[in-house]
Amino acid sequence: MALGKLCNREPVNTLEQLQELLNDKGGKQYYEEMSDLDVDQALLWNTIQKTIKAKSRIKTWLEICAHCGMCADSCFLYLANNKDPEQVPSYKIQSTLGEIVKRKGKVDNAFMQKVMDTAWSKCTCCNRCGLYCPFGIDMGVMFSYLRGLCFQQGFIPWEMKIGSGMHRVFRAQMDVTTEDWVETCEWMAEEWEEDWPGLEIPVDKENADILYTVNAREPKHYPEDLAEAAVLFHLAGENWTVPSEGWEETSLAMFAGDWEGCKLQVQSVYDAMKRLNPKRMVVTECGHAYRATVIEGPYWAGLKDGQTPIPSLHYVEWVAEALRTGKLKIDPAKRIKEPVTYQDSCNYIRNAGLADCAREIMSYIAEDFREMTPNREHNFCCGGGGGFNGIGRYRKERNIGLKVKCDQILATGAKLVISPCHNCWDAIRDLEEVFEVGIRWSFLKPLLLKMVIVPDHLKPSEEE
């Protein structure tokens, strides 16, 4: 069997392996090797037989699809690509996973490359199609399963192989070590304490009320997000902490279909919960982080009740609660005056039902809130979820997909989009670069800091 040095069926488990992939700029050697990668047909069919059993939902879904096409208009990629029939969700899954099952795993390299391209460039696993299928068939769930088969065979995009390896090596989607993380917490606390008397970012504080966990991109690229979270917890009088290990919520392993990597990642967070014994966890403004750790994570970790070891909240839940209870109070004069809209993240709105929290927040902070159409759980994917944002091979396809979200935003008449999700934030940033329509975007934290009422004893030094 032809296995490349970089493109193969072996997960990345060492820093050396990871560095070799990173050195292959753009994945040039990786994709060349992929063209010679054999399909282990016996392994593929054996895996399918073990996982798609007689009464499994995936087997049932493959068999009961009526090819009615009602899922078509639910898919933003179908709409963005001039209603191309090959972008209909049912077609996409039947022509890939359905064919593999029909052929009992007897597929070749060319077919598996087609499957890979479909699984990562024609579906973001947003799960919107499941809302409109009369049988409740969810292509997002099936494409996640299909990605797992691709990962096992080595047919995954270069960036996803790297992302999976990052989680296995660093327990984070980026090369942020425990030392890097703790030093960043100390640095941000020191930098911001002068302006916010008494500000701390407590590390490994036991029995806190809140365990705060983040997206690795924050300490890596914009640590001010961590500082902003610290200030808001400080103003709210929260007893909180961050863990020195198990601080990373995201899971590119989930995007890659690396289920073992998913378990390793989420277990690190759960271990932090058990070690520090907080009352509950708050996840930063990231949709897939919440989904990976709170919705899917318990099952990866073998927790049969489907619940995290302690109650776990997305950041919008904490903000809504803090505003509702008066822990944070908004200065009416500083509310957002201009038209503003809200991007409903697939992962914490459609898949976790937190639309009401988002609207509650908007009622406090915005005077002219305008809903997208459709909205809430019916909102379209931002266009960059499921790993789509970060795969260079599919940048053209991703950019085409952004058109639907761009049109949705412009139809509201708002140029400011509040987007408490990293992938959504990135996609909206990128659609502005592509279409240049004057859209601005923001997380909640910096907006809240501009409008919260600060008690006299907590005011920044220059205001005293």
From TrEMBL:
Molecular function GO labels: 4 iron, 4 sulfur cluster binding; metal ion binding; oxidoreductase activity
Q: Which InterPro entries match?
A: 4Fe4S_Fe-S-bd, 4Fe4S_Fe_S_CS, Cys_rich_dom, Helical_ferredxn, HmcF
* Record's keyword terms, sorted: 4Fe-4S, Electron transport, Iron, Iron-sulfur, Metal-binding, Transport
4Fe-4S ferredoxin-type domain sequence ranges: 62-137
Cysteine-rich domain ranges (all copies): 340-424
Q: List, alphabetically, the PANTHER family matched.
A: FUMARATE REDUCTASE IRON-SULFUR SUBUNIT (PTHR43551), HETERODISULFIDE REDUCTASE (PTHR43551:SF1)
This chain belongs to the protein called: Uncharacterized protein
